[in-house]
Amino acid sequence: MDALRALTALERKVVACRACPRLVAWREQVAEEKVARFRSWDYWAKPVPGFGDSDARLLIVGLAPAAHGGNRTGRVFTGDRSGDFLFASLHRTGYANQPTSEYRDDGLELTDCFITATVKCAPPQNKPTPAERDTCRPYLERELELLTRVQVIVALGQYGWDAVCAHYRLRPRPRFGHGAEVRIGDGPTLLGSYHVSQQNTFTGKLTPEMLDAVFRRARELGEVVA
């Protein structure tokens, strides 16, 4: 319960953040202009905190919320194609109770899994600046501190991989790749996966079988050290 209360307090702090003027302007512009298919939506248009099981042994780290996904729904990977691909895999591998998530209160529950992003606001062209990344870093670091049972971290893409490596001061920095595996001293094991972006999933660079294999490996590792 202490971890849950601390994560809830952190969530409030994240949602209230306006530290990066460019990101604040962009997320609010997107919410004002919208796109035709979401014209009736009242966009979240604020930073998007992590969510999931506070006792999780698996932490998933992505890049940032999507402009018309998490920035719209208020939950990372919720309401976009990337999330469809991710949650389907988490459902198949036993971490999620349902294979899709369209909005924040749609009944999705994660078991033994917590999902977050390196940068909490949707950035233009999905590319935060180094300064924005560094400004947001304390939120990810606090999540890592509070999620004390985490045994495995899955980094979705190079950006998430680099953020985790920076947090643990891994030198030389391990090379990212799909299925890459690095034990962080006496801490968690870091696993790499190609990001679940449409650029990867539509081209076949990342298949459902490939992502499932990463999460099955995460479960194996979590059970071994639990």
Can you walk through the features of this model?
- The chain starts with a helix and ends with a helix.
- The longest helix is centred in the last third of the chain and has 18 residues, at 208-225.
- By secondary structure, it is an alpha/beta fold.
- The radius of gyration is 16 Å and the shape is globular.
- 45% of the residues are buried.
- The chain has one domain (2-225): Uracil-DNA glycosylase-like domain (Uracil-DNA Glycosylase, subunit E), CATH 3.40.470.10.
- Helix content is 41%, strand content 11%.
Properties at a glance:
41% helix, 226 residues, alpha/beta
Do you know the CATH topology? Uracil-DNA Glycosylase, subunit E
Secondary structure tally: strands: 6
Question: How large is the share of residues in beta strands?
Answer: 5-15%
Q: Which spans have pLDDT < 50 for at least 5 consecutive residues?
A: none
Ends: how far apart? 19 Å
Q: How many helical stretches?
A: 8
What layout of secondary structure does this protein have?
Layout: H1 2-15, H2 21-33, E1 51-52, E2 58-62, H3 70-73, H4 81-92, E3 113-117, H5 130-146, E4 152-156, H6 158-167, E5 181-183, E6 189-193, H7 198-201, H8 208-225
Parallel strand pairs: 2-3, 2-4, 4-6
Antiparallel strand pairs: 1-3, 5-6
